[in-house]
Amino acid sequence: MRRTRKEYEAGHDRPLGGYLMAMAGFAAYTAAWTSAVRRGGRPLPERPQPWDVVLTSVATFRLSRLLSKASVTSPLRAPFTRYVGPQGPGELHEEAQPDQGRHTVGELTTCPFCISVWVASTLTAGQLLSPRATRTAMGALTALAGADALQLAYGALVKKTTGD
């Protein structure tokens, strides 16, 4: 195992043990949701509806960025990260703490791609357990994503027309 890790790392510091723990945590999280869905007794849909896939995609995108990049959620990430600087409107650039125990969580919490797996799983389980409430929340997140796009478009239009 040590030899494999050493060969894989190729001189870089890669927290494979932390990643293994994160995978185990995700497996346990998914198993808990699966058990809750099974106990709920609702039948699974034959296939996902296209509208639900779109709504889940946009809501996952927005919630993942909110959790991993937003200034307002930085206190949640602070124990595992270091502030580097701003990164776009209302977003921060943070880096994972170098400590072995905090590094993996820091990477997970600052990477919208990484956290989106957890968010999509949660939203999917929510649709199976409490579809109306979950779709309402996803609708709000989708509206927020749309509002963000409009804010950025408006800012670009103002910049283009005024030259600022």
List the main descriptive attributes of the protein structure presented here.
mainly alpha, 164 residues, two-stranded antiparallel ribbon, 7 helices, flat
Quick structural gist:
The chain is mostly helical and 164 residues long. Helix content is 72%, strand content 7%.
Task: Explain what you see.
- The protein has 164 residues and is mainly alpha-helical.
- The protein is 72% helix and 7% strand.
- The longest helix is centred in the C-terminal third of the chain and has 32 residues, at 131-162.
- The chain has helices at residues 2-9, 16-40, 50-69, 74-77, 100-110, 112-129, 131-162, and strands at 81-86, 92-96.
- A two-stranded antiparallel sheet has the order 1-2.
Topology of helices and strands:
Layout lengths: L1 H8 L6 H25 L9 H20 L4 H4 L3 E6 L5 E5 L3 H11 L1 H18 L1 H32 L2
Antiparallel strand pairs: 1-2
Helix pairs in contact: 2-6, 3-6, 3-7, 6-7
User: How many distinct beta strands?
Assistant: 2
Number of helices: 7
Taking the alpha carbons of the first and last residues, their distance comes to: 57 Å
SSE ordering: HHHHEEHHH
Structural class: mainly alpha
Low-pLDDT residue spans: none
Strands of the widest sheet, in order across it, are 1-2
- Shape call: flat
Instruction: Report the β-strand fraction as a percent range.
Output: 5-15%
Largest sheet: 2 strands, antiparallel
Radius of gyration: 19 Å
